[in-house]
């Protein structure tokens, strides 16, 4: 493994800007301070997003997914994101309580461009709002109301380089450690990995919502 020579560490903005140069004009012009109608189409077509938050205990990036359009555009400055059933760690929500700044990146299967949103979020539990997001008659526990500060698309280079959507590059699940194997190792065998894996498919099926 190559040793890291810390003499070459970039530690100030001037050095960073000298290394990369000025941003191209299009990368600046594509940013809007609201959900432009053309950007709205991306949000409504996306079934998957990553929510990034920051708080006193650290950073968090959390995957969020549902049928396409699960993040609703309430108006040009407001997005609504349901918080579905999970493991109750609520790392993202803890962060938002103490630091409302959030970032979202939306992915659309088969598409190279992604959409990025920066803003500030609040946690809402209005019963009528929760009911409007119900699936199988099960509402989310809460809904994030995101005030939009910036929206822009990300070009397709990362997706193209990774070949994310290329089925020939997909990896068989058995090629990597199972969830049960990881839990058994990290819990020092307090959790039975085989039982966890055996029960997982049915548990996921019955607890999506």
UniProtKB/TrEMBL annotation:
Annotated SUPFAM superfamilies: FMN-binding split barrel
Pfam families to which the protein is assigned, alphabetical: PNPOx_N
Domain (Pyridoxamine 5'-phosphate oxidase N-terminal): residue spans on this chain: 38-155
PANTHER family recorded: FAD-BINDING, PUTATIVE (AFU_ORTHOLOGUE AFUA_6G07600)-RELATED (PTHR42815:SF2)
Listed name of the protein: Pyridoxamine 5'-phosphate oxidase N-terminal domain-containing protein
């Amino acid at each position: 493994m190559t040793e890291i020579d810390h003499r070459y560490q970039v530690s100030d903005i001037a050095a960073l800007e000298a290394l990369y140069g000025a941003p191209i004009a299009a990368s600046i012009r594509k940013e809007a301070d609201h959900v432009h109608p053309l950007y709205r189409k991306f949000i409504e077509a996306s079934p998957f997003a990553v929510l990034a938050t920051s708080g006193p205990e650290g950073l968090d990036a959390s995957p969020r997914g549902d049928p396409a359009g699960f993040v609703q555009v309430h108006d040009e400055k407001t997005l609504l994101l349901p918080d579905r059933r999970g493991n109750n760690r609520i790392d993202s929500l803890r962060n938002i309580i103490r630091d409302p700044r959030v970032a979202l990146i939306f992915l659309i299967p088969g598409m190279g461009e992604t959409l990025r949103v920066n803003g500030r979020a609040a946690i809402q539990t209005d019963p009528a709002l929760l009911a409007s997001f119900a699936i199988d008659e099960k509402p989310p526990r809460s809904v994030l109301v995101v005030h939009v500060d910036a929206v822009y698309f990300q070009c397709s280079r990362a997706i193209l380089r990774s070949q994310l959507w290329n089925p020939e590059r997909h990896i068989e699940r058995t090629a990597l450690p199972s969830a049960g194997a990881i839990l058994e190792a990290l819990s020092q065998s307090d959790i039975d990995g085989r039982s966890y894996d055996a029960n997982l498919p049915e548990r996921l099926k019955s607890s999506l919502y």
